[in-house]
Design a protein that fits this description.
By secondary structure, the chain is of the alpha+beta class. It contains 16 helices and 10 strands. Helix content is about 40%, strand content about 20%. Zinc ion binds next to strand 3.
C-alpha cells in the first residue's frame, strides 16, 4: 500500500513542478515569455524549454539521454505534445532568445524577494562574480569560441574554448533554513577582451535589471583593478576583492602597516584570528575613493590522516574594499571576504559536477549561452524547492543527490515498456 511517506518521495519531480507552477507560475510567467527566431516553427518553444528544464533537474547530461526518455508517461502530464528529438532541441536553442530566459530568472528572483526568501546580510545585499572556462577543443569551433595557441614538441596547435563570467546572489541565512543562493546571469567572454571587461558588461546589464538586489560585489584578485572598483563606485556599489602583491603600491603600503601595528584578536568559524584593518588608504590613486585593506591571519587545527595527530595550520587573507567600517566592522568584512568561495563551491563546482552544465549540448554560441541560462533557471528553482518547500525534518536526513536520484527514477520509471522496444 502506498503511504503518505512513500508518495512524498516517489513523486518529487511532479512535486517540484507543482511547486514551480504555484509559486512562480512557471509555464505562464517564465516559459511562455521565451521565444526564438524560427520563421515557421513546427515545435513550440515552450516544449523545448520545458524539456530542457527536466533534462537539468533529472541530471540526464545530454540531449540524446533526454530523447531516450521520450516514451515516459511523465511527459504527457508536463507537455501537451510529445518530447522532440535531440537535434530539434539543439536547433531551437541556436535560435532561442537569451533575454527571455534572463527575464525568467528575474521573475524567480522577484517572487522569492516578495516572499522574503532573500534577506540581506546585516543590511548588505551581497553578490559574487567570477570567470569560468566551460569547454575546450582542438577540432570543433563556433562563432563564440576564443582561441589560444598551445605549444607541443611536435608544433603549435590552436585550441578553441569558451569562457563566461557569472554573477551569483548570496542572500543572508534565515534561521532553520538552508542558504538560498541564486545564479542571476552570465556573460560570454568575447574574443580579444579580458575577463574584467566581460564582467563590466555583465554588471552593466545586471545593475540595470536588478538595481537594488545587491550593494557589494565579491571577487578574486583578478578584479583588484581600478576600472572594476570605479565602475561599482559610480553605480553606488562596493567592491571587496582579494589583494595580492601584484597591486604593488597598495599592497606594500599595507604590508608596512601590518609590520608596525598590533592586530586585534577575533574568531572566524572557530579559527583564532589576528586582524588588521586600515581604512582610507590613499595608495591606489587610480581608484576614485580611499581604499580599505583588511588582513586576517587565521590559525586552525587539522587532524592528519596518517597518524591522526592534530597539526596547527595558518591561512593568511588580505582583501581590498570600499566598504566603510560603519557598514561592515572587521569581523563582518572578514566573513564576507570568505564568501568569495561560494561561487566556486556552490556555483561552478556544483554546476559542472552535478548539473553537467559544461557539457556542449550544441556547439553554437547562442545555444551554449541559452543552455547555461536554462541550467541557472533549473538550479534556482530546484534550490528554492529544497530550501522552502521540503519540510526541514525531511530535508535534514536526505542529501541533494538523494532527491536528484528520485527525480531521475520518476522519469525513467514511467517509460512505457512498449516504447522501449526497438
Ligand atoms: Zn565555440
Amino acid at each position: 500500500m502506498e503511504t503518505a511517506r512513500t508518495k512524498e518521495t516517489i513523486t518529487v519531480l511532479r512535486r517540484l513542478i507543482a511547486y514551480s507552477e504555484k509559486i512562480f507560475h512557471l509555464s505562464r510567467d517564465v516559459v511562455a515569455s521565451v521565444s526564438d527566431r524560427r520563421l515557421k516553427p513546427r515545435i513550440s518553444t515552450s516544449l523545448v524549454v520545458k524539456s530542457s528544464l527536466v533534462m537539468f533537474w533529472s541530471r540526464l547530461g545530454s540531449l540524446n539521454a533526454l530523447e531516450l526518455t521520450a516514451g515516459s508517461r511523465f511527459w504527457e502530464t508536463w507537455l501537451d505534445e510529445p518530447v522532440c528529438s535531440a537535434d530539434s532541441i539543439g536547433r531551437v536553442y541556436a535560435l532561442l532568445d537569451a533575454d527571455g530566459l534572463r527575464q525568467g530568472i528575474h521573475h524567480i528572483y522577484d517572487c522569492l524577494k516578495r516572499n522574503k526568501a532573500l534577506p540581506d546580510v546585516h543590511g548588505i545585499g551581497v553578490a559574487v562574480l567570477d570567470g569560468h572556462e566551460s569547454h575546450a577543443s582542438y577540432l570543433r569551433h563556433c562563432s563564440g569560441c576564443l582561441e589560444r595557441t598551445i605549444h607541443f614538441e611536435t608544433g603549435d596547435r590552436v585550441q578553441f574554448y569558451h569562457r563566461h563570467v557569472t554573477l551569483m546572489l548570496l542572500p543572508g541565512v534565515t534561521p532553520g533554513r538552508e542558504p538560498l543562493r541564486l545564479l542571476l546571469d552570465h556573460e560570454p567572454q568575447r574574443s580579444g577582451e579580458n575577463e574584467v571587461t566581460t564582467a563590466l558588461r555583465l554588471l552593466k546589464r545586471v545593475i540595470l535589471a536588478y538595481p537594488r538586489a545587491f550593494d557589494l560585489v565579491l571577487a578574486d584578485a583578478l578584479y583588484a583593478s581600478a576600472p572594476f572598483f570605479n565602475f561599482l563606485l559610480a553605480h553606488h556599489k562596493h567592491a571587496l576583492v582579494v589583494l595580492k602583491d601584484d597591486r604593488r603600491n597598495l599592497y606594500s603600503d599595507a604590508a608596512g602597516l601590518f609590520g608596525c601595528t598590533a592586530p586585534a584578536q577575533g574568531r572566524y568559524r572557530g579559527r583564532q584570528c589576528s586582524w588588521w584593518d586600515f581604512p582610507d588608504l590613499l595608495s591606489w590613486p587610480q581608484v576614485n575613493s580611499p581604499v580599505r585593506v583588511i588582513r586576517s591571519l587565521e590559525t586552525y587545527s587539522v587532524r592528519r590522516q596518517l597518524d591522526k595527530r592534530h597539526e596547527s595550520q595558518t591561512s593568511d587573507w588580505i582583501w581590498a574594499t570600499t566598504l566603510p567600517v560603519w557598514q561592515a566592522p572587521t569581523e563582518r568584512a572578514v566573513a564576507l571576504g570568505h564568501h568569495r568561495w561560494d561561487i566556486e563551491n556552490h556555483g561552478f563546482n556544483e554546476l559542472v559536477n552535478q548539473w553537467d552544465a559544461d557539457h556542449v549540448f550544441k556547439h553554437d554560441a547562442n545555444a551554449m549561452e541559452c543552455f547555461l541560462l536554462d541550467a541557472f533557471l533549473a538550479y534556482n528553482i530546484f534550490h528554492a524547492f529544497l530550501a522552502l518547500n521540503l519540510k526541514p525534518a525531511v530535508r535534514a536526513v536526505r542529501t541533494q543527490a538523494f532527491w536528484v536520484s528520485l527525480i531521475a527514477a520518476e522519469l525513467y520509471r514511467d517509460i512505457a515498456p512498449s516504447s522501449s522496444s526497438p
